[in-house]
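Lab notebook page, bench 4
Experiment: in silico fold of construct C2
Operator: M.H.
Input chain length: 86 residues
Purpose: comparison with the prior construct
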Amino acid sequence: MDMSEQLEVLGEILARLNRDKEKFEKLLENPVDAHSDECARHALAGTELLIADVNVQIYKLSADDRDASDGKPDSPPLATWFRIIE
């Protein structure tokens, strides 16, 4: 899998995690009971950690891409930026 494919996959994962985060936040707006509220809080916290990790991976791949192009402004990047698929 080349760098652009990896970035695309990470973008898809990030989009899914962001949708999950929104769902958990909505659950917290109208909690059913204490147990479901606590479960939603844990799920939200875990999702936020995963989002941060995916962002780090995207940053690392992007930095590798910049390094591979020798940082020259006129050099085309080896990988295109990922697209977030909704």
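Observations: The chain is about 70% helix and 0% strand. The two ends are 22 Å apart (CA to CA).
Next step: discuss at group meeting.
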